[in-house]
Write a structure and sequence with these properties.
Blueprint (H helix, E strand, L loop, with lengths): L3 H8 L6 H8 L3 E5 L4 E3 L7 E7 L2 E6 L5 E7 L4 E2 L2 H6 L6 E4 L3 E7 H10 L1 H27 L2 H11 L1 H4 L4 H7 L4 H14 L1
Antiparallel strand pairs: 1-8, 2-7, 3-6, 3-8, 4-5, 4-7
Protein name: Crp/Fnr family transcriptional regulator
InterPro entries: cNMP-bd_dom, cNMP-bd_dom_sf, RmlC-like_jellyroll
Pfam families: cNMP_binding
Length: 194
């Protein structure tokens, strides 16, 4: 079994020695889930970090009114987990579900923490990855506060063109903080203008 894709992902930020790469790969397992299958359910304790080899997933929560709110999506070459649950070992408030059949590389949180003590370069990789994710979340928050619904939609389409055709529009709508009806109006307007 080869883990070439995940190693290429890590090499974007840091370099592991051949021995460290081999030891890291020994901690990894492949997990396959079908479309609509849950990776993590609200109330679970998330024990793994996941790298997406193939497929598309969404992370969402359900509010007190029973409405779903999409927090983020993950496609090939992205990572997904519930950071709160995984680092605090606390029940998650969110769900992670497959939008397509998926092949994931999983690593146990405790094994990863232990390995990072032995391989500081991997800790650097995750620090830089989390910094990147935090900056993107900050920018998303600013967009939600300062952009119109139409501007948020256009920004999403420009930033994530590979996702736009893979994610149902109702999920994109809640990710952008829009009702499905308003999203449909914006989508029609933008599509006509192109």
């Amino acid at each position: 079994m080869t883990f070439d894709n995940i190693l290429k992902n890590i090499r974007r930020y840091t370099t592991l020695s051949p021995q460290e790469e081999a030891a890291f790969c020994a901690l990894l397992t492949i997990k396959k889930i079908k479309r609509k299958e849950f990776l993590v359910r609200e109330g679970d304790i998330c024990m793994y970090e996941y790298y997406v080899n193939k497929g598309c997933l969404r992370n969402y929560f359900i509010d007190k009114k029973g409405l779903e709110h999409n927090l983020y999506f993950a496609i090939e070459d992205w990572w997904i987990s519930d950071l709160y649950s995984r680092t605090r070992m606390a029940p998650t408030f969110c769900n992670i579900v497959a939008l397509e059949d998926c092949e994931l590389v999983e690593i146990n949180h405790h094994a990863l923490e232990k390995f990072m003590e032995e391989a500081p370069a991997l800790e650097r990789f995750f620090r830089l990855s989390y910094e990147h994710a935090l900056v993107n979340q900050h920018l998303r928050n600013l967009e939600m506060l300062h952009m119109s619904g139409e501007e948020r939609y256009i920004s999403f389409m420009e930033k994530y063109p590979k996702m736009a055709n893979r994610i149902p529009q109702k999920h994109i709508a809640t990710f952008l903080g829009l009702t499905p009806q308003f999203f449909n109006l914006i989508h029609a307007k933008v599509t006509r203008g192109r």
